[in-house]
Amino acid sequence: MINLARQQIEALMDYDQAARLIEDAYRATSLGKVNLPPVGHIVFPDHDGDCHIKYGHVEGDPVFVIKVATGFYGNAANGLPSGNGISLVLCAQTGAVTAVLHDEMCMTDFRTAIGGAIATRLLCRTGAERITVVGTGVQARRQIEAHARLMPDRQPEFQVWGRSAERAALVVDELSDLGLSVVVTEDLEEACRSSDIVVTTTASTTPIIQHDWILPGTHITAVGADAPGKQELDTRLVAKADRLIVDLRSQCRDHGEVATAVRAGVVDADQLVELGDVLDRRKPGRTEDDQITIADLTGIAAQDIAMAQMVVAAFEDGLGIMPEDVLKS
Amino acid sequence: MINLARQQIEALMDYDQAARLIEDAYRATSLGKVNLPPVGHIVFPDHDGDCHIKYGHVEGDPVFVIKVATGFYGNAANGLPSGNGISLVLCAQTGAVTAVLHDEMCMTDFRTAIGGAIATRLLCRTGAERITVVGTGVQARRQIEAHARLMPDRQPEFQVWGRSAERAALVVDELSDLGLSVVVTEDLEEACRSSDIVVTTTASTTPIIQHDWILPGTHITAVGADAPGKQELDTRLVAKADRLIVDLRSQCRDHGEVATAVRAGVVDADQLVELGDVLDRRKPGRTEDDQITIADLTGIAAQDIAMAQMVVAAFEDGLGIMPEDVLKS
After folding, report:
1. N or C: chain B end with fewer CB closer than 10 Å?
2. Per DSSP, which regions of chain A are E strands?
3. Nearest CA of chain B to the CA of A302: how many Å?
4. What average pLDDT does the structure give for chain B?
């Protein structure tokens, strides 16, 4: 039985290996090789909280994974993170629990960021380096890190925008050790117009990015709208995109950016292409430099399975340490 | 964060306290005070296995519970138990994980047995002491223990029947330390005819107990049929019962003994009475000594919540020990 605390999981994190496994997870999903039962959900209206249980099994894998993620949005007022969680790894041959990963949401943050960077590097145009990141939360930091690490052949220049310029400055400060080019922008429209890539990470329920701010050739990776009712992109922007890529078509019909556009009747559900199909070249991604491409990612259990497997494999390879005092905390 | 291994959980087990909490759980369920989302389920046909995720929250409780239980029925051939599992306790105000209970299915076994004994003591007739237990698995042992502990004012005499008399003798042997009256019976019909109480615990898919074996005044607690397709009682027996008590009406319409009888049209779903309503005296249980009563229990998440809370409270009261070497195993 492997029992890992958050600090250990963060120490075991390997972006490249996780990206390989998450790409495989997208491919397996699009090939119908992942058994993904409906997501479990329970709400706590008195505390503005909810809990999602995502679980599944990739055909042939020796293990399956159950991921519990909570969001309690009143926590911030008490100085606590809103997100929390734990992942369980179980043997798919005996049902025994083989690992308990007390990740406190960090694995979800990593896999979401890596999914975003995988989509961006697959879909952005040649030479794209100017990236606007919208939002100032943990996911904004993680997306910058993942994009920098997973596009090593480029020299990305990041601009960060948030409703609070102060919080945007904090993101820049916190990433200063990584030697990246990250600055704050206060003019989102101008930032979008001058960017090759826009990554949106907010929990907004009203559109932030307007359709006329996005010029031909831009790629957008939208990861914020992961639940019904959330929206970061103007519906007209979704409608005018040349290519709409999603992680899971069945899920994106009622979650995410494209759901709103499909409901409004300006996008046909048949236009949606799965990331796994593009990775496998069964379907085209960007075909021209002047296209607008949007990757709308709502997060799927196959990513969680991949992340858990990466962490467990790295631990078993002896890459992790296991201080007992961490587990007792 | 509390992290308990199976041995610790077994050491913390308090039948009386668990029974009090589980009775409250049945009451709260029947009053509609428990949020019980649909049970999660994933199957592993290649290994004759499945996994259930039961979770829920009792209105006003400071915590909620997610219970993962697996059954891999090929394990026995390799000398492994078929059942396994883990329970998570989370704060209903912040979403933080407060306890991980590595119970390996033992909490499910306890709560099922306690639920059975609660139903029996509530519904059996005055002076009932002769109990036939059908089955020779873990649940047969647990039911005998729970019935003995939770009916301290009686002197129950147990007869155990199984398809293998050898395995039945093993149950008697294993319980010999408890100072109970437990013997093997090889004649199930005669045992049923001479018993006041029959407790069925098998995973049978064809009826074992025939309708004419059960005399007026008998109470039956059936816990084996916890999934669609399982059946221990002759449908005519269910039809002729005077009172049909279930743990959760919505669940018993497609799980358990009564489901078969309802589908066959010999029992009306309106006849089903919930255990919590009988405990609260909102609805009658047994009203005459010569009635046949059946409690058909399929197991509900509210019991799992109660068990987890009992274990955590007992641990916090300092009743448990926490040897580090147990956790490392």
Report:
1. C
2. 2-5, 34-35, 40-44, 49-58, 63-72, 83-91, 97-102, 130-134, 157-161, 181-184, 197-200, 219-222, 243-246, 272-274, 293-296
3. 14
4. 93
What pLDDT score does A240 carry?
Answer: 96
User: Do the Cβ atoms of A327 and B3 come within 8 Å?
Assistant: yes
Minimal Cβ distance to B68: which of A66, A78, A80: A66
Size of interface A-B (CB pairs under 8 A): 133
What is d(CA B263, CA B253) in angstroms, rounded to the nearest whole number? 8
Å between B63 CA and nearest CA of chain A: 11
Of B44, B49, B57, the CB nearest to A42: B57
CB crowding A171-202: b at 16 or more within 10 Å, else e: bbeebeeeebebebbeebeebbeebbbbbbbb
What would the pLDDT profile of B237-274 be if each residue is shown by its tens digit?
A: 999 999 999 999 988 777 788 888 999 999 999 999 99
**A35 to B51: CB separation less than 8 angstroms, yes or no:** no
> Are A96 and B84 an interchain contact pair (Cβ–Cβ within 8 Å)?
yes
Letter for the amino acid at B82?
A: S
Residues of A in contact with B55 (CB under 8 A): 40, 42, 51, 53
In the chain, the amino acid numbered A281 is: R
**What are the residues of chain B with a beta carbon less than 8 Å away from any beta carbon of chain A?**
1, 3, 35, 37-38, 40-44, 47, 49, 51, 53, 55-57, 64, 66, 68, 70-72, 75, 78, 80, 82-86, 88, 90, 92-97, 100, 102, 324, 327, 329
A228 min Cα distance to partner chain B (Å) = 19
Q: How far is CA B131 from CA A244, A326, B16, B161, in A?
A: 66, 50, 20, 11
Report the alpha-carbon angle B209-B51-A96, nearest 5: 110
- The reply to whether residue B47 touches residue A93, judged by beta carbons under 8 angstroms, is yes
pLDDT at B323 over 50: no
Which candidate from B53, B78, B84 shows the least CB-CB separation from A66? B53
For B103, nearest residue in chain A (alpha carbons): A97
pLDDT above 90: residue B226: no
Q: Determine whether the interchain pair A84/B97 forms a contact, defined as Cβ–Cβ distance below 8 Å.
A: yes
Domains and CATH numbers, chain B: 2-107+302-328 (3.30.1780.10), 114-299 (3.40.50.720)
Judging contacts by C-beta atoms under 8 Å, the chain A residues touching residue B47 are 92-94
pLDDT tens for A226-266 read: 777 788 999 999 999 999 999 999 887 777 788 889 999 99
User: What is the number of H-type helices and E-type strands within chain A?
Assistant: 12, 15
Of residues A53, A71, A102, nearest to B53 (C-beta): A53
State the pLDDT confidence band at A329, using cuts at 50, 70 and 90.
Answer: very low
Q: Which residue has the higher pLDDT, B204 or B95?
A: B95
Q: What is the pLDDT of residues A3-16, one digit of tens each?
A: 999 999 999 999 99
Sign of the CA dihedral running B268, B270, B276, B281: negative
**Quick one: average pLDDT of B287-292?**
97
> What percentage of chain B reaches a pLDDT higher than 90?
87
pLDDT of residue B329: 40
| In the predicted structure, residue A39 carries a pLDDT above the cut 50 | yes
pLDDT of B60: 93
The reported pLDDT for the residue numbered B228 is: 73
Average pLDDT rounded to a whole number, residues B198-208: 93
Rounded Cα distance, A124 and B145, in Å: 66
